[in-house]
Amino acid sequence: MEFKKSQELYNKGLENLVGSVNSPVRAFASVGGNPLFIKKAKGSKITDVDGNSYIDLVLSYGPMILGHRHKKVQKAITKALKNGYSFGASTKNEIKLAKIVCDAFPGMDKVRFVNSGTEAVLSGIRLARAFTGKDKIIKFSGCYHGHQDALLVAAGSGLATLSLPGSKGVPEGAVKNTLIANYNDLDSVKAHFEAHDDIAGVILEPVAGNMGVVTPTNNLLKELKEYVNAKGALLIVDEVMTGFRSKFGGAQELFDVEADITCLGKVIGGGFPVGAYGARNEIMEMVAPLGGMYQAGTLSGNPIAMAAGISTLTTLNKQNPYERFNEVAATIETYLIEAAREHGVEITVNRFGSMINPFFTSKTVTNFEEAQSSDTQKFATFFWEMMHNGVFLPPSQFEAWFLSSALSEKDLEKIKKAINAAMEKVAAS
Ligand SMILES: *Cc1c(COP(=O)(O)O)cnc(C)c1O
Questions:
Q1: Which pLDDT band holds residue 286 (cuts at 50, 70, 90)?
Q2: How far is the CA of 240 from the centre of ligand 1 (A)?
Q3: Residue 414 annotated among the catalytic residues of the structure
Q4: Buried residues in 14-29 as b, exposed as e (16+ CB within 10 A)
Q5: Is 145 close to ligand 1, i.e. is its CB under 6 Å away?
Q6: Which is the closest atom of ligand 1 to the Cα of 117?
Q7: What is the pTM of this model?
Q8: Which of 266, 299, 354, 357 to mutate to test the pocket of ligand 1 (most atoms within 8 A of CB)?
Q9: What per-residue confidence (pLDDT) applies to 168?
Q10: Quick one: average pLDDT of 157-183?
Q11: Ligand 1 neighbour 321 (Cβ under 6 A)
Q12: What residues form DSSP beta bridges with 356?
């Protein structure tokens, strides 16, 4: 397999792009080598500029749940394009997508569309502060909520509890109201509430997917909701990754819990830049123009993006692929475990619906600290052998692999072979 053209473009891109990528997760920093340049994608497959074709388990980090260029979505976008690209005024399709979203999430009476998951979460946080009149926010170590200052707090276990900024350029003042708790550890949340009386809300990924897949203990969401509300604070559920992916109604449907504020992104735009936040009327009425919390967007509710969202969600709801996702993920888990056993490699596989990944560790992984016990060198070896066998994975131990409904039985066979080859390589490394 050759990466000559990707290599050339990478080198060319370095001149005017930062690291030749527009998001650092696309860099191959932790696996070595240079990032791929993609030419096109269709269904379950993605093709790079050298003509190499891969089964795509990155799926643009989640959005492409139907696979690439689903014909219903393509038709809807093409139709929308004929009417114009952006108006700075409302369109009928915004109402239509809002209805689909609010029907899927019973805790949302109203929704506001934005342009990314980051924007959805930063607005959701502002809303929690506006509604409660309090300032502090609790987040969990290892959960990612986009790149806004307040939530870019060091996710590394020890320092994390000190609320040190995790990025240069984030002033201490921006994170002084951010408190860190341990995932799957309600007591660590309670300790903060005992120490502070000005906590506006707790935010979490209901299934963590940004430290690799880390699943919540059975009652985490329910217990949090009850406890947090009893303390006069709000539960903000960041379903940017899990919304329409864990279930049509997100992890909240699965765990039968209604968030106070829900944040959405990724799947909701079907590959176009859409984010959303929503809540019950009483909370959403804080948002301008109804209330005093300001949040705006020149391109928010963009007509092409709305068309992509509507057609993606309508198709997804009809397909109802969630049972099959569980089966496919279970199959891939079996491939991983059997190959690891055969080659004597220690792994732990975590999965939840259509999110799955192996950690190269013998420990169970229930939080960020345990995730970090993984051997990232082994992952790098595994990653490259998967690539050479035609499977495109996220270039990091700490990213979830995503499944699309376009995956075929033939694709699964290919994934199985690739996993066997990759485990063999890891064992030999
Ligand atoms: C991806 C992600 C975000 C950020 O969304 P962007 O569209 O990249 O800004 C926020 N929260 C979670 C849980 C995510 O997975």
A1: very high
A2: 6
A3: no
A4: eeeeebbbeeebbbbe
A5: yes
A6: 5
A7: 0.96
A8: 266
A9: 84
A10: 74
A11: no
A12: 351, 401
DSSP collapsed to 3 states, 71-93: HHHHHHHHHHHCCCCCCCCCCHH
CA of 138 to the centre of ligand 1 (A): 17
On the question of pLDDT at 296 being above 80, the answer is yes
Q: What is the per-residue pLDDT across 200-238, written as a single tens digit (0 to 9) for each?
A: 999 999 999 999 999 999 799 999 999 999 999 999 999
Side-chain-side CA neighbours of 328 within 13 Å: the count stands at: 24
Residues with Cβ within 8 Å of 313's Cβ and at least 6 positions away in sequence, in order, are: 97, 100, 101, 104, 244, 248, 267, 268, 270
Catalytic residue among 139, 231, 247, 266: 266
CB contact set of 378 (below 8 Å; sequence gap of 6+)? 345, 360, 426, 429
Question: Which one from 48, 56, 238, 260 is the annotated catalytic residue?
Answer: 238
Are 240 and 72 in contact, with CB atoms under 8 Å apart?
Answer: no
Active site residue 238: yes
Query: Taking 90 as the threshold, does the pLDDT of residue 101 lie above it?
Result: yes
Average per-residue pLDDT for the chain: 95
Structure token pair of residue 148: 């806004």
Structure confidence at residue 111 as a pLDDT band (50, 70, 90):
very high
Phi, psi values for residue 279, rounded to 5°: -165, -175
Q: Rounded to 5 degrees, what are φ and ψ at 378?
A: -65, -40
Compute the distance from residue 144 Cα to the ligand 1 centre, in Å.
7
Question: Residue 228 C-alpha to ligand 1 middle, in angstroms?
Answer: 23
102 alpha-carbon distance from chain centroid? 20
**What is the C-alpha to C-alpha distance for residues 360 and 233, in angstroms, rounded to an integer?**
38
Residue 231 annotated in active site: no
**Strand residue runs (E) in 57-188:** 110-114, 136-140, 178-181
